[in-house]
User: Which sequence fits this backbone?
């Protein structure tokens, strides 16, 4: 709203200046000059306004380079014109009017050349441009949050788009031009897998660009410490670019993470963010997990939580395909993620005994006394079994000695 108010004021002043110019020449009875001056002022002013409306995404570094280049060029042109005027006066013998006209032409030509050279130089070196006074350097002050520079790996991963949908990211996202070029090269690869990954990355960029909750910028700049024609890897260029911009790198690459930290660049790793948001399990707690496959060790079963955390169930191979209650025994944190170890929950009503039919050495509950087994209640008094009812011999067994008769006598 404020910008349109400023544009309205600009249009009003433009019309007022055109009217004053037309009125001036109209009083001089020069109708052609009056109309021509008004049309020229309105044309130049309209051209400036249309250019401002067309170029919506302006780069402050480019505008600053043009402004300071113009000021520096005008100053240098004025200095050179002071030096050229005495030379022209002494070298050219003619009427004063011709000498003044020649000096004016030379002054304009020198000023235009100085402005061009200054603007061109500042545009080519705008990334390295600093206000420097002897013994004093004015460092760049960052307003708001530091920008986030996206790596190729985190764009292909796609979780950054879901993270931006939660409105937790309130700073600018920057994608350098060389990262976009690498993504395009992956999408044009002959390998089908790489080609699909590259196309997924381009789709994620399109999704981020159309998301009204964030501000995504395609940056045209390059690393300030690189010389023209110097070839370096994309990771090194990304680190130098982030350091020059004063931002933070968002990546999933472990090697890039280490290299950036060694060079003093802050890194945000999406894998670390995902691990920090996973379910917290403490030893001694109980959780429900579904065992889906056998483990590496004998008798182990493996299950997964909803967030992808691996759960290793000791002596749980016979529970594959079942939902079981697990007692957490330990938690192991690795760079790849978190692993939870536990065993099946022991019920107070009974213990666990080995099952001979299970080759993995699993455990099955042993029912306590009083539990019906096979539809028969064995909690009451059990009938006594008479001798011989079970098929056993009731008399003395061969090779035994009867205490009443003593040892047998040997036969003659």
Assistant:
């Amino acid at each position: 709203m404020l910008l349109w108010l400023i544009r309205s004021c600009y249009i009003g002043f433009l019309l007022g200046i055109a009217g004053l110019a037309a009125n001036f020449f109209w009083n001089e009875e020069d109708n052609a000059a009056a109309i021509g001056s008004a049309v020229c002022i309105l044309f130049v002013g309209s051209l400036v306004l249309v250019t401002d409306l067309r170029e919506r995404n302006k780069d402050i570094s480019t505008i600053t380079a043009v402004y300071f280049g113009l000021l520096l060029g005008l100053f240098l042109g004025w200095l050179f014109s002071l030096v050229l005027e005495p030379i022209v006066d002494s070298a050219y013998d003619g009427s004063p009017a011709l000498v003044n006209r020649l000096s004016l032409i030379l002054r304009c030509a020198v000023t235009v050349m100085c402005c061009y050279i200054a603007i061109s130089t500042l545009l080519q070196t705008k990334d390295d441009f600093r206000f420097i006074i002897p013994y004093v350097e004015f460092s760049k002050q960052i307003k708001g949050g530091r920008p986030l520079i996206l790596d190729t790996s985190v764009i292909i991963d796609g979780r950054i788009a879901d993270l931006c949908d939660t409105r937790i990211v309130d700073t600018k996202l920057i994608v350098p031009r060389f990262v976009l070029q690498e993504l395009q090269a992956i999408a044009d690869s002959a390998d089908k897998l790489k080609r699909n990954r590259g196309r997924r990355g381009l789709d994620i960029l399109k999704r981020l660009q159309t998301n009204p909750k964030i501000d995504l910028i395609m940056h045209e700049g390059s690393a300030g410490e690189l010389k023209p024609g110097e070839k370096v890897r994309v990771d090194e260029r990304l680190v130098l670019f982030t350091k020059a911009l004063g931002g933070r790198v968002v990546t999933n690459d472990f090697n890039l993470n280490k290299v950036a930290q060694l060079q003093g660049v802050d890194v945000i790793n999406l894998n670390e963010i995902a691990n920090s948001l996973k379910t917290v399990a403490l030893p001694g707690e109980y959780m429900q997990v579904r065992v889906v496959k056998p483990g590496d060790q004998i008798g182990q079963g493996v299950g997964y939580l909803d967030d992808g955390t691996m759960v290793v169930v000791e002596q749980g191979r016979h529970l594959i395909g079942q939902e079981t209650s697990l007692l957490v025994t330990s938690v192991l944190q690795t760079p790849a993620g978190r692993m939870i170890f536990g065993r099946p929950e022991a019920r107070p009503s009974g213990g666990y005994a080995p099952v001979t039919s299970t080759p993995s050495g699993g455990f099955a509950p042993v029912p306590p006394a009083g539990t019906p087994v096979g539809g028969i209640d064995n909690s009451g008094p059990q009938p006594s079994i008479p001798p011989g009812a079970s098929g056993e011999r009731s008399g003395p067994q061969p090779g035994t000695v009867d205490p009443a008769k003593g040892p047998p006598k040997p036969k003659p």
